[in-house]
Amino acid sequence: MIATATASRAGVGARPARRRPRRALLHAFLIAVCAVWLFPLGWAIYTALRPYGETARLGYVSIGGTYTIDNFVNAWNQAELPHFFLNTIIIVVPAVILVLFFASMVAFAVSRYSFKFSLALLMLFTAGNLLPQQVVIVPLFRLYLALPLPQPLSDNGVFYDQFIGIIAIHVAFQLGFCTFVLSNFMKTIPRELNEAAVVDGASVWDTYLRVILPLTRPALAALATLEFTWIYNDFFWAILLMRTGSKLPITSALNNLSGQFFTDNNLLSAGAILVALPTLIVFVILQKQFIGGLTLGSTKG
User: Fold this and answer.
1) What is the DSSP letter of 161?
2) Do the Cβ atoms of 47 and 266 come closer than 8 Å?
């Protein structure tokens, strides 16, 4: 009996010892992956800190010379970044608010009420996520040139080359994912709350606005963080559906730092770092919601 207990204790003691090499191997692998992942960012920062003359003399793959923040100052001034940051805010803030508002209403309808086409409606929104955006470039471009938009919202009478056109395309393409996530989250809220609200005389709108929506706040916060990052980082739609250079969002406006015959890669690296800063700050501040958003709705289908 004593021998068995001793052997058992020895086995328990040996188990962590066997795990140590595996854990060390796992940590080494994770550190290597992180290093590979962070290498482009680190190289961009290193390049941005070097004057163009130094890299032209020593080469980009070199150490030594002068290190300054002049490229950051020049990128900020030459590319007029404050103006394009404002353009980005004009696009991102309404787009995030509208996506979450519409998605929460659709999710409320398909998750809290049973009707004939509720499942088909949810599948339609979910399937929209699988549609490659490149497939609809040509029809969307022609549609934006043809769709009329009244004067207060458009200075050329159509959706093309307008902030509202970019906002609309982001709302359309992000709505499916947000609806899917929010509907799964709302399914976890007890249905008795709906019944209690109806007994108290609440309308459907009151039930949505005063009962379900406040309980969905964690999911909305996580989605808002994800959506801000995705819409802010968009480069594709503004390049396609905008013609006026002064209306471009910050990511697309980085192209202003490129010349026709010469491009200062050091200056461009500094501009790219400045443009990436808001998303890094948002991630650091809201990383809990960001990570929560990646697994949101994954426990209930």
Assistant:
1) T
2) yes
| Cβ-based neighbours of 212, under 8 Å, separated by 6 or more | 108, 112, 186, 189, 193, 194
The pLDDT profile of the chain, 301 residues, written as one tens digit per residue, is: 455 555 555 555 556 666 778 888 999 999 999 999 899 989 999 999 998 888 888 888 888 778 889 999 988 888 788 888 999 999 999 999 999 999 999 899 888 888 777 777 777 777 777 777 777 888 888 999 998 988 888 888 899 989 999 999 999 888 888 988 898 888 888 888 888 888 888 888 999 998 899 988 888 888 888 888 889 988 888 888 888 888 889 887 787 777 767 778 888 899 889 988 888 888 788 777 666 666 655 554 4
Closest CA to 263 of 255, 251, 274: 255
298's CB contacts (< 8 A; 6+ apart) are 184
**What are the CA-CA distances from residue 49 to residues 53, 141, 196, 254, 257 (Å)?**
12, 40, 62, 18, 16
Phi, psi for residue 98 in degrees, rounded to 5:
-65, -40
- The reported pTM is 0.78
Give the integer Cα–Cα distance in Å for 279 and 299. Answer: 28
How many other C-beta atoms lie within 10 A of the C-beta of residue 203?
A: 11
**Tokens 């902030």 identify what position?**
163
The token duo for 56 is 């032209």
Tokens of residue 14, six digits: 């040996």
Q: Which two tokens stand for residue 37?
A: 């992942």
